[in-house]
Fold glycerol kinase.
Amino acid sequence: MAPSYVLAIDQGTASTRAILFDKDGQVKAMEQQEFPQYYPQAGWTEHDPNEILQSALNCSELAMKKAGAKKDDIAGIGITNQRETTVAWDKVSGEPLCRAIVWLDLRTAETAAKLSSSGGKDRFRPKTGLPISTYFSAVKMRWMLDHVAEVKKAADEERCCFGTIESWLIYKLSGGTAGGVHVTDVSNASRYMLMNISTCKWDETVCRQIGISTSCLPSIKSNSEIYAHVKNVSYLEGLPISGALGDQHAALLGHACLDVGTSKNTYGTGCFMLLNTGFDPVPSKQGLLTTVGYKLSPEDKTTYALEGSVACAGRVVQWLRDNLGIIASSKEVEILANKVEDTGGLTLIPAFSGLFAPHWRDDARAVAVGMTLYTSKEHMCRAALESTAFQAVDIMEAMKQDTGLRLVDMRVDGGMTVNNLLMQMQADALGMPVLRSKMAEATALGAALAAGLSVGFYHNKESVRAMIEKAGGYEVFNSTTSTAARQKMQSRWKDALKRSFELAKYDPNYKDEEKPKALKKPRFVKVSTIKPEQNGLNLQVKVIKLPDVVDGEKLHEVICGDASGTVTLNLTPSQFLPCEAGTYIRVQNAKVRMKGGYIRVEVDKWGKVSSAESPEADFEVNLKNDVSAVEYELK
C-alpha cells in the first residue's frame, strides 16, 4: 500500500510540533509540545539538545497515533527549525558538549565586537552575505571554543561536531554514534556566517579567520534529498529523512513564493521578511541580508533571497500588556485601536533593543513622538500596530532599491496576522495587497513539500499553489489609501525614526565604543632596519603567512615582509584577521619584543594594524633576509 502522509517536524524556539500532511498538502494530524528554556545569566538563552530531540520524537509518535498512522503510511520526514541556534556534540559519545546557544542569545557580543574591530561589521559580507552579529552560528561556535573547555578539548582532539538544530536532529535520528550522518541543508548553512553565498560551500578563508575548523562542520546538502534513514526509533524505523529548511525559508516555499519578486513576511515576536531574488545572490546595499531561499534537489539551481528582520513587532504588544498594563491580553490591542480613527499624531518607534534592518542602529532607543493631553491608551495601541506596519515598509522599500523590482503584493503568516486591523494598516502603508493564507501551517508545509518531492510523494514545487487553494487560498487586504496620504504617513514615521538615534548614550548601563585617536601620518621604515628595543615602529608590509589555527585572543605569529626582508609579528586575531596572505598591511606605533633572543614585533593599544592598498611600485619580498631569525644575546 502506497504511503498516505509526509511527516513534518517544525522545531521552534519555544515548542516543537509534528504535523502529518496528506497527498493534497492538507493537515491531517498535529501534536505540539513545549520544552524548557534556560536563562543562566542576563541576556543568555539556552536549550538542552536532548530535550529538543525528545520533544520531536514525542510529537511525532503522538501525531501518528492521532491519524492512526503506522510508519508504512509515511513517505518521508521533513524538518524545519529555528535558525542559528547552535549545538556542539561529541562524535565519540554522540552527546552534547554543552547546552545549545539560542539564536537570540547575547553572550557573544564581545566575540562579535572583536571580529568587527578590524575590518568592520561587514568584513565577511561580500562572501557570506551576512554582517558580523551575535545571531549567526559562527560567532556562537567561536564563543564555545573560547569559553567551554569541553568544546575546546573535543575540537583539539577532532571529536567536536558543530551544527544547527536540524543537523543535530538528523544526526540523532539517523543513529548517532551508530552511523548517524553529520549534515546541514543549504538554507541553514547560509546562516552560519561561514558559507560562501555564491558557491554554497564552506569558505575556507572565512573559517580560518574566525578560527573554525571545517572538520567540525557538517556537509552541506540541498533542501530536498534523502540524507539518511531513521535508525533505532521503532515507530519511525527505516523512514527516509528527505527534506530540511530553516523556518523562514520553509515559509517562503510554503507561501508559494516561487517567482522572482514574490515575498512573505512572518509576524511574531519580531518580523522576518524574505523576497525571492532568483538564481543569483543580490548583494544588499540597503542593510538587508543576502541569503539562500531554497534548493530543491542536488541538481537544482539555488534560489536566493533578500531578508530583512525587525526586532520588535509582537513584542510591542507584550510591552503594552506586561510593562504598561494598558491591555490585559494581546487580543485587546485591536479592540482598543479600533476605537480611534488614527493615532492622534502619535508615532511610536519601538527601538527597545535598537533597530534592525534596514537601519542597524544599536544606539537607537524607543521613542513616542507627538503626544498631547489628548493622547489616550487607544491612540497608543493604534500607534503600536502602526509601528509594525511601518517597519515592514522600511524593509520592503530597501528590497525595491536593492533589486529594482516592482513588487506587487506581500504574503503573510504568524501570530499577529489574526489582527485584521494590522493587516489593513499594512496594506495601506505598503500601497499593495496583503495576502493572508488560510493555510495556517505555511512553514511546516514548506518542509513537507521538500521532503515529499525527494521521495516522489509530491511531483513538483508548483503543486504548493494547489495545496494553498485547497486550504482556502488567501484572504486579501487591499490598500485603501491614496499615494499622497501614504507619503504623509511615511514622512511622519521617518521624522520620528531619526529622533530615536543616538539615545543609547543616555542609558547609564550603555557602553559606548571607545574610539581610537587618529594616529599621525607615519614614516615607514624598511624591515631590514628593525633592531632590538625599538619603539614607535611603522611598517608597510606584505603578509606572507598566517597561523594555521586561531586559538582565542592569544598572540599568534604572522610572517610579513618587504623588499628588504621578512619579520615575524606577534598579533592577536582581532589585529590580523582582516588580513590574507598576499595582501598588504600597515603596522603603526609598534614595539620590538625579544622572544628567546629573537625579534618579534608587537602592537599594543597605542598602536594600530590596518589593511593597506597595494603600493604603486609592487615589490617582491626578500625571503632570504629574515630579521627574526637573527639571534641576539640577551642582557
About this structure: DSSP finds 17 helices and 29 strands in the chain. The longest helix spans residues 377-403. The longest strand covers residues 584-595.
